[in-house]
Design brief:
There is one protein chain. A 7-stranded antiparallel sheet has the order 6-3-4-5-9-8-7. It has a two-stranded antiparallel sheet with strand order 1-2. It is an alpha+beta fold. It is elongated and about 65 Å long. β1 and β2 form a beta hairpin. The N terminus and C terminus are likely disordered. α1 packs across α3 and α2 crosses α3. The protein contains 7 helices and 9 strands. It folds into 2 domains: 66 residues, Winged helix-like DNA-binding domain superfamily/Winged helix DNA-binding domain (Arc Repressor Mutant, subunit A), CATH 1.10.10; 140 residues, Chorismate lyase-like (Chorismate lyase), CATH 3.40.1410.
């Protein structure tokens, strides 16, 4: 049954459908970034023609509420509300303790560690994009180091990541801070799981990111100097409006 919202009888039918879909986005019924049903299903749900649904989606697309992924058959709600979630910065735990602290980022095209290869479903000795990150305060304290390996899915389907293959020489700086945004732009819905392990003088965080089809996208191992630094996890839930 279609969700009921207040609409004007003087509005075009497609605008009424668009208003109902937008209402579901705002109240969290449809989470940002989630793939919408196909036109046929939406038409049956709202009791309208597929052309009316198509016009409604075009209206939301023009307003930046809906985007179309490269598969083309379905629409995805834009991930505007999820792009700045603190717990999804890349790499996990990216931080410099002080304004004059130092950081270094590089990318290589290499065979990842056996643990990363297994998590990503890569065959032994298959190379992929590997990102390394280090940050510390000016005096060297508060060291954080992270290693991220990307899956074949991520490198193939995310255009911005694919571009790094030819320049992943381990020397030039890598600007991958928007990697999660790039994945969403490619129509991927991100699901992550973080595991925290206490070590003798540090803390290790392992993040695994999958898409809506449970395909692995990346795995990151972050090590934090627990003697000098604090690891804070912040979870942000969508607010009802």
């Amino acid at each position: 049954m279609a969700r009921t919202t207040h609409t004007s009888d003087h509005e075009p039918l497609y605008a009424q459908v668009a208003a109902q879909l937008l209402g579901e986005l705002r109240d969290g019924t449809i989470p940002p970034g989630e793939r919408l049903p196909g036109e046929r299903e939406l038409a049956a749900r709202f009791g309208v023609s597929r052309e009316t649904v198509r016009q409604a989606l075009n209206m939301l697309r023009r307003d930046g509420q809906v985007s179309t992924d490269r598969r083309g058959s379905h629409a995805t709600l834009s991930a505007t509300g999820a792009e700045h979630v603190p717990s999804l910065d890349f790499p996990v735990g990216a931080h410099t303790g002080e304004p004059d602290g130092c950081r270094r980022t590089t990318v290589t095209w290499e065979t990842p560690s056996p643990e990363h290869a297994e998590a990503l479903g890569l065959s032994p000795l298959r190379a992929t994009l590997v990102h390394r990150y280090e940050s510390a305060a000016a005096d060297g304290s508060g060291l954080r180091s992270a290693v991220t390996s990307f899956s074949a899915v991520a490198v193939t389907e995310v255009e911005e990541l694919a571009r790094y293959r030819d320049r992943a020489n381990g020397h030039s700086s890598a600007q991958l801070s928007r990697a999660y945004d790039w994945m969403r732009k490619a129509g991927l819905t991100l699901h992550h799981r973080d595991a925290i392990t206490r070590l003798p003088q540090s803390v290790r965080v392992t993040r695994r990111v999958h898409d809506q089809y449970d395909r692995p996208l990346e795995i990151t191992d972050l090590t934090v100097d627990a003697r000098q630094d604090a690891l804070v996890y912040e979870f942000t839930l969508p607010a009802a409006t």
